[in-house]
Structure formats: C-alpha cells, structure tokens
Amino acid sequence: MKTIGIIGLGLIGGSIAKTFRRVHPEFDIYAYNRSSEALANAHAEGVIDVACEENDPRFSECDVIFLCAPVEYNLAHLETLGKLLKPGAIITDVGSVKGVIHQKVNELGLEDRFIGGHPMAGSEHSGYEYATDRLLENAYYILTPGGEVSLDVLSAFNDLIASIGAIPMVLTCEEHDFAVAGISHLPHLIASSLVNLVKELDNDSQIMKMIAAGGFRDITRIASSSPEMWQQICEENQKNISAVLDAYIRMLVQIRCQVDEKNGGFIYQMFESSRNYRDSIDVDHQGMIGKAHVVFVDIADEAGGIAAIATILAMDGISIKNIGIIHNREFEQGVLKIEFYEKDSMERGLALLQKRNYITYVR
Known about the structure:
This protein is of the alpha/beta class. The protein folds into three domains: 3-171, NAD(P)-binding Rossmann-like Domain (Rossmann fold), CATH 3.40.50; 176-279, 6-phosphogluconate dehydrogenase C-terminal fold, CATH 1.10.3660; 293-362, VC0802-like (2-Layer Sandwich). 47% of the residues lie in helices and 16% in strands. The protein is built from 13 helices and twelve strands. The strands form two sheets. Strands 3-2-1-4-5-6-7-8 form an eight-stranded mixed beta sheet, sandwiched between helices. Strands 10-11-9-12 form a four-stranded antiparallel beta sheet, covered by helices on one side. Strand 5 (90-93), helix 4 and strand 6 form a beta-alpha-beta unit. The longest helix is centred in the middle third of the chain and has 29 residues, at 173-201. The protein is globular and about 65 Å long. Residues 283-290 have low confidence and may be disordered.
C-alpha cells in the first residue's frame, strides 16, 4: 500500500495527505479536489505528487483510495472509481455515517474491496487551510469492513492506519452509526439548539451573549461546524438520531419534573452520576473536534502584560493559536487564556511561563 489516492482535500482529506507525506515520504499521493486552488496548493507544497482530474484513470494505479468528499459525492465517486480499482486495491471513506455508503457498496458488488473509515478527529473549521499533519494523531479511527473483506486485507489496512498515528477500531456499520448518533450527532444538535435558544431569550442589549461563561462556550463550540455537513448527517443517520433524541427528550422531561418538585436527591444524583462518568472518559484521546490545548495565566492588568507573554513564547518558537482576556471566569482560573496548536507547544509554553514565575493553570 504505497500509492495513495485521495478524493477531497478538505480538513480530513488534507490532513490525511499531510500525515502520509510526513510519516511515509516514500509514498506516491494522487489527489482530486473540486476546488482547484486547494489542489494546486497541496501540489505546490509537495503534499501530493499528482494533481488529478475527476474520475482520472490514473487512480487505477492506487493501492488505497480515500473518499473524503461530502457523502453524495463519495457515492458517485464510489461507483466510478470502483471500476478502476486494480487487483488487491482497497477503497475507503471518512464519512461519519456508514450505513448509506455500505448500502451502495453492496449494490455495486464491492463488499470485498471496501473498508469504511471514520477518523474521530476534526475541528469546528473546514477546508484545506485548516488541515494539519497531526490531526489524526492518537485519535480513534473506526473501520467498518465490507462483509467479504478478508482478514489479511483488513489487517494490512489496519496497520496502515496505525502507521499514521491513529488508533484503529473495527466495528460493524450498524454499531458505528448508533454509537456516533449518541456521542457526536446528538451533541451537535444540542449545541446548535442551545445557541439558538439563548439567541431567542437574550434581550436587545445582548446581556447573555456578553457574559457567556466558559462553560457555555465549551459546550457550544461545535455549533460553529459546517451547516451543510450536519444537515447531511442528520438526513443520513435519521433513524439512529431520532432514537437517541427520543431518549434524551424523555430524560429532559423527567429532569424538568424533578426540578419543579425541588427533588434535591434526584438533582444531586444526576450531577454526581454525570460527573463520575464524565471523569472516567479518557481525555487524552481526541474526540470529533479534538482536545483543546489551553493554558490560563494570572497576569496583572497593566500595559504590556500580554505582549510580554507573547514575546516569551515567540522567542522560543512557540506559535499561539489564540490569546485573550477572559471576562467571565465562573468555571475558569486565570485571567488570560492561551490556546496552542498542539500538546507539545502547550507543555513547552507552560514550562517557560512557570520558569518566569507566572501563576498558571491547565484545564
């Protein structure tokens, strides 16, 4: 598997290309993207070796083809590229819903050539400009093989995914779609609806928006994700999303009743149970939107305070993703919030600031 094809150079497709280029520089990478600008940039940067046209016959040279476009395009490419596959080649995708594409795979008779894929990593941003060669590192990568894929082929593909730093996990497409409906699709619906609710409840002075605390920002961050993508996901995984929504609505009705009755025991148990389960989750592995690498710093409110910290970090070659004063720190310590691009930069920055006697906190 040394010739890789990629259809779609957005956040995920671009990150897969950049990761293969870093980890396997000897690989040949062929790619096609609807945006000629992103395709040209990837070629100019040396991320891909061959810039292809749509349904390019040169994809027949690939050992693996990654479908990284929106689902309706992936389905169309599956039909055309499936006919180009050379013996032993595999076609895969990165979609967050697997049932639809597996159905198409069965219709096309590609059950022995297709391994569904879903890297559990991402960002609220989209596009090649946000792609990185570390996005998939230590992220779960779900594999949903077609019913006739041999164990040898699945094992080889599993090893390929592991070689780029991801953590492969094999599930059926049914298991995958129900799981992500609960841990990914429902949270996005909740985040979006919560933001819209606050927007409707806020007054003309936008007091709620002004004093929104870290807790609100954290649980609604994913509401900034692509509307087009999430519309498609809701349509494609409707049955599972509807089932988990029913369960969630029943739980909300129960909570409302217990709050109305001032049932302190129930309310306490609810918060204790959720805290214990949440604390048991391994936060070192990236979820759908990745783990934020954030340091909070106590600084005096004086001219040059932020500039001094930025200079300290810049002199050591550490890039800052975002920096700003926290006006409402109800659930956050430290007046200054610094977000880094990766864990290593955060740890280096933290050590530098502590060495200079800054009081720091890591969430």
